Amino acid sequence: MKKQGRLHDMFHPSDSSTRTMRDLISGTEDLLRSTASYGGSEIEAARDKLKQQLDAAREQARGWERAAWDRAREVSHATDEYVHENAWKSVAAAALVGVLAGMCMMSDHSRRR
């Protein structure tokens, strides 16, 4: 799997805050479409203000997404660099974590008997 694909999976919009934001934007767009036939200066002014706020929210969400991607790239690059520079330390740490996880699983398994 490519590094870009892993980053995409890591930051795929699956968390609840992202879904909530997308649902809010979608609902606001639906509201704007459904009120398009209504007239009056107050409704027009409210609709224009809502459109501006919606555009600002979209732009802010894009900024958050860009910042998250940039940060993920930095972390990925730093991790990759560290592992290459400290390959044996990384292998030893992974082995230690594996041994500890195995011991925990065996301990849990023996308690169940």
UniProtKB/TrEMBL annotation:
Q: Which GO terms describe its molecular function?
A: ribosome binding
Membrane topology qualifier? Single-pass membrane protein
The organism's place on the tree of life at top rank:
Bacteria
Keyword Transmembrane helix appears in the UniProt entry: yes
Tell me which positions the record assigns to the signal sequence.
none
> Which residue numbers delimit the DUF883 domain?
21-63, 79-103
Q: Which residues form a coiled coil?
A: 40-67
Any idea what this protein is called?
DUF883 domain-containing protein
